[in-house]
Amino acid sequence: MRYLDYDPHDIVYITEIRRPLDRSILDNYIQDKDENYFASRNLSAPILVWWTPFTYDTGSYIQCGDQTRCFISNIRKYRDNKDFSAFLFYGTDFHLYDLPLPRYQHEQWALLHEESPKNNYAFSFESIMSMFNHTATFKRHSDVPLTTQWLASIDDLLDQTYVIDIKEKTSLQTIENLAPIIYIQSDCFTPSDRDLYIKELMKYIPIDSYGSCLHNKDLPENLRIPVETMEHDDILKLVGKYKFALAFENAVCTDYITEKFWRPLRVGTIPIVYGSDQFQDFLPDNHSAISILDFPTPADLARYIHELNTNDTLYDSYRQFKLTRTISNDTLLAQTMSKRTWGIHNDHIRGNFISKLECHVCQRVHKTREDPTLKYQAKFDDYGCPSPTTFDSQGVKLERSGDWYRQYEFSRCQVDVFEELLDQGNYSFTEKELYDAAAKRFSPSFRRDEFLK
Questions:
Q1: In which pathway does it act (predicted)?
Q2: Per-residue b/e over 323-361, b at no fewer than 16 CB within 10 Å?
Q3: What's the whole-model pTM score?
Q4: pLDDT tens-digit series, residues 348-375
Q5: pLDDT tens per residue, range 200-211
Q6: One domain for residues 268 and 350
Q7: Are residues 144 and 231 in the same domain?
Q8: Rounded CA separation 284/280 (Å)
């Protein structure tokens, strides 16, 4: 992370920040400046500001194309500058009680939110999405689609490094006492309620669960920090030994696809998927993963897995893209990756999706300056996830039920209160005031502690 500041005539000062970041970095910087410093600076470029401190950049120029340049900062005080043009928001830190209100007509808003609705239900409501002009989310129709944010390249899917022959996979089940299915997850309270389904599935087929959720098998000690080891070579080798891997996301929403989906495909293991209802669109071919929604119950799914586990030909039919190293150019996956102009894993050539969004907004701001009649508007489907569901004791999906559904409905109440406050011209309200007003309309039996878990 960089901490820097410059303008066309200043020296650039860069300090590498290696400790966890907090607002004090920005606050300390602001304290050193006089009251009118930010409003009076002549920056000669549109100013973009991260309202939710994200990059902790105090101020620097970005060059987007040959002629397009913007100044970008995490200092909110730049809003008073005559060149201020747009706010950028990181979705997880977007709070209805802390927004730049009232919003002025010339201000554009951009949303970056690659995370699932577990992090913030506000974007599941159309009135909130309508506040944005530009988006970068996991949805394929977003301005900067991040659906493939966990896939480095098509070559990763075709790579043979971790592929194990089907007969060896079968022998490993005996030699190393491996179950047919692997599950690695340590986030156990999720809107998808995945563990309810998996617990029922475990009654009908063995599953080796290495994470803290439904734990029954230990990872090597060097692999027990989930975020740091999810792409570790030893994790990939371990997953590659199994015939099947559970790829259950923490929330259900179209196009929400993470490393859980890509990892088994990378290593030649068949993913069993629950998450995006249209994940098939991003498969290497039309027969390389299994959806739990194709089976009425976990017992039915288990019967099919048992069949595949004992039929080598049928099993390898799911790995044809891998065994032949072929992905058709007409797949949405291939088309999406060919159009993607950003990289992952600190790609120093193409950059990342954060800089891509910043440049996208910068270029659009320049266009609206040239043509004030030009308007950009985000769509509900740029995020717009459905309400959470759960499972009954037999693993059958249930609508409008469960703890996470109640939290979703409480978020709806907060959004309703927020809209009413804006309609009344009330732009100054606290978190507690918003919360208490939503609580009154949520339900007569509402208990505050239920939503503080």
A1: Protein modification; protein glycosylation
A2: eeeebeeebebbebbeebebbbeeeeeeeebbebbbbbb
A3: 0.91
A4: 888 899 999 999 999 999 999 999 999 9
A5: 999 999 999 999
A6: no
A7: no
A8: 9
C-beta separation of 54 from 1 below 8 A: no
Q: Nearest to residue 75, comparing CAs of 13, 3, 165? A: 3
User: Do 247 and 264 meet the contact criterion of CB atoms below 8 Å apart?
Assistant: yes
* Residue 175 and residue 318 in one domain: yes
Q: Which domain holds residue 181?
A: 154-333
Instruction: Report whether 16 contacts 2 (CB < 8 A).
Output: yes
Residue 94 forms part of a structural domain: yes
Provide the 8-state DSSP code for 12.
P
SS3 305: helix
Beta-strand relationship, 13-16 and 60-64? unpaired
- Spatial contact of 137 and 423, defined as CB atoms under 8 Å apart: no
For residues 139 and 199, membership in a common domain is answered with: no
Q: Do the beta carbons of residue 350 and residue 164 sit within 8 Å?
A: no
- The answer on pLDDT for 448 being more than 70 is no
Which among 49, 99, 51, 57 has a CA at the least distance from the CA of 78? Answer: 49
Q: How many CB atoms lie within 10 A of CB 241?
A: 18
Give yes or no: residues 116 and 202 share one domain. no
**In terms of pLDDT, which residue wins out, 221 or 256?**
256
Residue that the structure tokens 């993470």 belong to: 258
Average pLDDT rounded to a whole number, residues 284-292: 95
Q: Which residues of 299-315 are buried (b: 16+ CB within 10 A; e: fewer)?
A: eebbeebeebbeeeeeb
